[in-house]
Design a protein that fits this description.
322 residues; alpha/beta; 16% strand; binds threonylcarbamoyladenylate; binds magnesium ion
């Protein structure tokens, strides 16, 4: 059965089979994960991967994350090291991506990992993504389902907002539980976090018992999360503010801010997970209401708050000195 948008499909067995057919026919589909929605296609097919880059308007040097069903499948395409095995056992399936060396016999399209020696590996937890991976014989290349540099989608209708009818088949997995992209950790040298997410450096440290570096600025763009301007709602974003601009919206957090028409509270309960989950949804809502700017109050910088601050800082980059 179809949803209100003709390209959104309920994830029943018949539609999962249709999704499989689409992947086998080198089409790109919208796929729910526990972090954000992805634009998924066969990671083994240049033809499919090319379509993803084109749809997203993504520069070809920027590699895609490859989604696998389990460890056995990962082993076919990448070289697994001890760090990875330990973290896999602790966190997978889950909202974490590992950068590992590609194996010489890997079938992953060179385009998918932008010709690099490494591959970003993720084993998603969302049951719809898992069900699809289970019936497929290929891993899925899946970047977030947004136009490059824009906000990631956290519901099937957000994917329609981004791409309209360009994506013919979107599986509806409801609202994403986490709402921010996965943590990315490079394990090819000393463990280094390239992008912060729901799984924190502290939690990773507890498993590896090794200092976890967190990349701040890098000359080489390893992840576009590191491109300075990203996660943009398309209007000016100003951070660490105590009030909105004229005709602007104000994103708040916690009890101390009063309610008002243009105030949008990420979590009245001071809950950072709830705030993370509401961030992109709220920014999309504000943009649709035609506010001219978004001011955001200070957000506590611990736990998933670090990932929130990373995203809003990048969203505000263009407007920082204005
Ligand atoms: O939560 C997520 O990770 C979502 C869902 C759909 O799985 N995906 C996602 O993909 O956020 P994307 O393409 O929007 O972000 C992937 C990031 C990019 O910053 C890319 O540069 C980085 O992963 N990346 C991919 N392969 C890499 C590699 N081999 N080395 C370093 N970074 C890599
Ligand atoms: Mg993205």
């Amino acid at each position: 059965m179809k949803n209100i948008h003709s390209n959104i499909y309920r994830p029943n067995y018949a539609n999962l089979k249709k999704a499989k057919k689409n992947i086998e026919n080198n089409n790109v589909i919208g796929l729910p994960t526990e972090t954000v929605y992805g634009l998924a296609a066969s990671a083994y097919s240049d033809k499919s991967v090319k379509k993803i880059f084109k749809l997203k308007k993504r520069p070809s040097f920027n590699p895609l994350i490859i989604h696998f069903k389990n460890l056995e499948c990962v082993k076919k395409d990448v070289i697994c090291n001890n760090y990875f095995i330990k973290l896999y056992r602790a966190f997978c399936p889950g909202p974490i991506t590992f950068v590992l060396n590609k194996s010489p016999s890997s079938k992953i399209s060179k385009m998918a990992n932008a010709g690099k020696k490494t591959v970003a590996v993720r084993i998603p937890k969302h049951k719809v993504a898992r069900k699809l991976l289970k019936i497929l014989n290929v891993p899925l290349a899946a970047p977030s389902a947004n136009i490059s540099s824009r906000l990631s989608p956290t519901s099937a209708s957000d994917v329609v907002d981004e791409f309209g009818n360009q994506i013919k088949f979107i599986l509806d997995g409801g609202r994403c539980k986490i709402g921010l992209e996965s943590t990315i950790i490079d394990l090819t040298h000393k463990p280094t976090i390239l992008r912060q997410g729901a799984i924190t450096s502290k939690e990773i440290y507890k498993i590896l018992r090794k200092k976890i570096a967190v990349i701040k600025k890098s000359k080489v763009i390893k992840a576009p999360g590191q491109l300075k301007f990203h996660y943009s709602p398309g209007i000016p974003v100003l951070i660490n503010k105590n009030y909105p601009r004229k005709n602007g919206a104000f994103i708040t957090f916690g009890k101390k801010f009063k309610s008002s028409k243009n105030h949008f509270n990420l979590s009245k309960k001071n809950n950072l997970r709830e705030a993370a989950n509401n961030l992109y949804k709220t920014m999309r809502k504000i943009r649709k209401k035609n506010y001219k700017s978004i001011s955001i109050c200070k957000i506590p910088n611990f736990g998933i708050g670090r990932a929130i601050n990373d995203r809003i800082k990048k969203a505000s980059y263009k407007w920082q000195s204005k």
